Amino acid sequence: MSEFEVSAFLQQLYDDCMDNASAPLDHLGEWTSYKRAQLQRMREYLCLPQLSERYETTPVYTPCNTHTEGDVEVTIYKIEALRALPFAVHVLQTAQPTHDRAVIILQGHDPRGARGAYEPAGEKTLGMELAKRGFTVFVPELIGLGEAKMHHEDGDIGPCESCGEIEPRLLNCGFHLLGIRVFEAMKTIDFALRQRGIRRIAAYGMSGGGHVCNYLGALDERIDQVIISGYVNLYRTSTHDRTHCICNYVPGQLHLGESYAVTSLMAPEKKLFLMSGLQDTTFPVEGSKEAFSYVEKVYRGLQATERFSSLLFEGGHEIKVDPVCDYLEGKS
Q1: Distance separating alpha carbons of residues 182 and 212, to the nearest angstrom
Q2: Cβ-contact 62, 77 below 8 angstroms
Q3: How many structural domains compose the chain?
Q4: For helices 31-45 and 208-219, what crossing angle results, to 10°?
Q5: What is the rounded distance in angstroms from the CA atom of residue 236 to the CA atom of residue 242?
Q6: Positions of the chain with pLDDT under 50
Q7: Does 168 fall in a domain?
Q8: Which helix H or strand E contains 65, and what residues bound it?
């Protein structure tokens, strides 16, 4: 090993961030003021005030195309809420939805983008199954994913390569992918609440979508249920232990504390369901266990234990459809 190797310095930076961060369990007695301050810091790290002040526009919603898959109608809308950055939202519903709750699905690095929530046809996918069970489902195509990439004459590139192209350019301008993705998810909720019969909102995020959902669930008061799979862990055992997509690295993020410090801010109001695969090598199970346990202690300390649940399932870095659907239907 070279005497000029940099790992010790990186470890020092991580340790300093953790030592200086406010731990949620130390602030249960002053939770309201602590949470308010942390959420404000979070908005600043995500650059949400700057996005809104400089680039937000009066929203325009335009249906682009509609097709049916069995009993489910899929409509793709063009949402214009940031200048020069329209994004697509895929809406799935049956002719007669039976729930007044909409579900926002935040995809990770699925090469199919938003379509991965309901394709391929004939296979059980989360978006299609939720729609069949009577939910209205909204799947935004977040920046850097699916069709929301920088396109080249030499063909398409994978989602992580896409993030790697876009993120440095955003950082040079003082923004980043996570902040814009959270903004797009919030604008998707604006759109969802305009639809007839929608009264309540649940958010589901997987992997990179779980990163978005972790912040969105804490920040957006209109969400009352949050399900995060394949993400909530420790930075120490995941993104600082191995190389992940660049979109996982956000300037200043660790000053808020470990990943679970963000997740904990959903307490006590939000119903929260955390999931991870026992064989997940992207977000290893030992880190998930520690994070889940910490968040549960926060909910318990705020007398809201009944609003927290978790599941470690047999499997890897993957979506488990039935536990999510059953949870949203109140069956688990």
Answers
A1: 6
A2: yes
A3: 1
A4: 130
A5: 9
A6: none
A7: yes
A8: strand 56-69
